């Protein structure tokens, strides 16, 4: 069986037409995109690299990485989101980006060690078996290559801020966007990476200030966090 939750796919498919509306439910992704792009590019410059974006959705990060000079493949299982990504690339004239509807585990079997950089952002908390995804990421990246992930920590603070605060109080996200039980502690994700043959290198926390309505990267990994790993040579 595919490592996918049909309800999660349906949820994002219903919103697919709003991916590139910067004032829509996807506004937070547009706001954090420059932060995560610069963090990725700072650790592993992507110009001229073969890059894979897993769980690409409507292509917000994939498109930005292609514009940074990478050759990017975005994959997802939400058909409508991929069509939106393809349409945006065509309308915006973005070169060197393509999209494919395929599970990451299937792509890993087809194209092992094919990519210099692999990204998987805001996806692991939406799949039944995140460890399976991480194993596939480790298979897809070349020896010496980088894997970048982001997800949500699991603790009382993250429940209050990411679910109660973001979904019910500030209404930054639709209610039901996240399921607390699927949040992943940094120690758990790091162990998944080591089990997949990846070596954790560094992490960053992503925080939001509701007064300034700005995000920033820092040391606070209590809620949202990013993890960078390398596959040993």
UniProtKB/TrEMBL annotation:
InterPro entries noted in UniProt: SAM-dependent_MTases_sf, UbiG_MeTrfase
UniProt keyword annotation of S-adenosyl-L-methionine present: yes
Highest taxon listed in the record's lineage: Bacteria
Bilayer-spanning residue ranges: none
GO terms, molecular function: 2-polyprenyl-6-hydroxyphenol methylase activity; 3-demethylubiquinol 3-O-methyltransferase activity
Chain residues that bind S-adenosyl-L-methionine: 36, 55, 76, 121
Keyword Translocase belongs to the record: no
Keyword vocabulary terms for this entry: Methyltransferase, S-adenosyl-L-methionine, Transferase, Ubiquinone biosynthesis
Catalytically driven reaction(s): a 3-demethylubiquinol + S-adenosyl-L-methionine = a ubiquinol + S-adenosyl-L-homocysteine + H(+); a 3-(all-trans-polyprenyl)benzene-1,2-diol + S-adenosyl-L-methionine = a 2-methoxy-6-(all-trans-polyprenyl)phenol + S-adenosyl-L-homocysteine + H(+)
EC number, as in UniProt: 2.1.1.222, 2.1.1.64
UniProt record, GO biological process: methylation
Annotated pathway: Cofactor biosynthesis; ubiquinone biosynthesis
EC main group: transferase
Protein purpose: O-methyltransferase that catalyzes the 2 O-methylation steps in the ubiquinone biosynthetic pathway.
Family: Belongs to the methyltransferase superfamily. UbiG/COQ3 family.
Name of the featured protein: Ubiquinone biosynthesis O-methyltransferase
Species in which this protein is naturally found: Roseateles amylovorans
Lineage of source species: Bacteria, Pseudomonadati, Pseudomonadota, Betaproteobacteria, Burkholderiales
